[in-house]
Design goal:
The chain is α/β, with parallel strands linked by helices. It has helices at 20-28, 45-49, 66-78, 94-99, 118-126, 144-151, 185-194, 210-218, 235-246; strands spanning 6-9, 31-34, 38-42, 60-63, 88-91, 111-113, 133-138, 156-166, 179-182, 204-208, 225-227. The protein folds into 2 domains: 6-38 and 177-246, Rossmann fold (3-Layer(aba) Sandwich); 41-164, Rossmann fold (3-Layer(aba) Sandwich), CATH 3.40.50. Helix 7 (185-194) runs parallel beside helix 8 (210-218).
């Protein structure tokens, strides 16, 4: 290893002027680029119909992301379903609850939220067990969410409204980086779909989270850096520790 001079982060560039990545780049004179390896595509009304879900049969919606919010209202419009004012919304976080204002008037009595995870929302969901819940989601929904709902006997229907697909990375074919940083298994899949003959060689591969780390190993790539760790809870902290060792 001759030191890390260039890094590609498989996520969109952070908005604004403040980011730990920007600080890292300035502190160690590293060129850090950002590029989404995956993107979201909504399914159309025709494909949604194959799931045989009647939106009107659901009196409440569980929303786990802003993307889920957007696609719920998009598919409702495409299906010509007028979302009733009586609809109850259960959001995984306060930020998602506030995001709902883009589509509905914010009424606290009909919008509920947890702190950050589906587990935080369970007690509130239990208080409304009579509701018939709809869970708008992606095709690669984390097992933790449905498992938690089933465990707590929440009556819900999973509605796949969007999917995560590989982005076109052909413009990166002749570009090389000292380090690649991944935050999801989808990013690894996109790398190998775009570059089936990819050879890691001396390229450092970093992963955030256990599922991403497993995807790297399962695809027979070398996992050089893994976060979070006790001494580095963030990806940028783990990268900084790695860079210091290489200097």
């Amino acid at each position: 290893m001759m030191g890390i001079k260039t890094i590609l982060v498989s996520q969109p560039k952070p908005q604004g002027d403040k980011s730990p990545y920007f600080d890292l780049a300035d502190k160690y004179n590293i060129k850090i680029d950002f590029r989404s390896f995956i993107h979201v595509e909504g399914i159309d009304a025709q494909e949604f119909r194959t799931q045989k879900i009647d939106l009107s049969e659901h009196s409440a919606v569980i929303l786990t992301s802003k993307t889920a919010v957007d696609h719920y209202f998009r598919i409702a419009e495409e299906m010509r379903f007028s979302v009733p004012d009586s609809m109850k919304y259960f959001c995984i976080s306060e930020a998602i609850a506030y995001y709902l204002q883009k589509y509905v008037a914010y009424r606290k009595r009909k919008i509920f939220h947890g702190r950050q995870t589906i587990v935080d929302l369970v007690d509130t969901l239990k208080k409304h067990k009579k509701e018939n819940f709809l869970l708008p989601c992606t095709d690669i929904l984390r097992d933790k969410i449905p498992a938690t709902l089933i465990e707590n006997s929440i009556n819900y229907t999973k509605a796949i409204l969007y999917r995560t697909v590989a982005s076109d990375l052909s413009d990166l074919e002749n570009v090389s980086y000292d380090m690649l940083v991944f935050y999801s298994p989808g990013g690894i899949e996109s790398l190998l779909k775009n570059f089936p003959d990819f050879r890691q060689d001396k390229t450092v591969i970093a992963a955030f989270g256990p599922t991403t780390a497993n995807a790297i190993v399962n695809n027979r790539l070398r996992l050089d850096l893994h976060a979070p760790q006790p001494n580095a809870p963030s990806m940028t902290g783990a990268i900084e520790n790695f860079v210091k060792k290489e200097k």
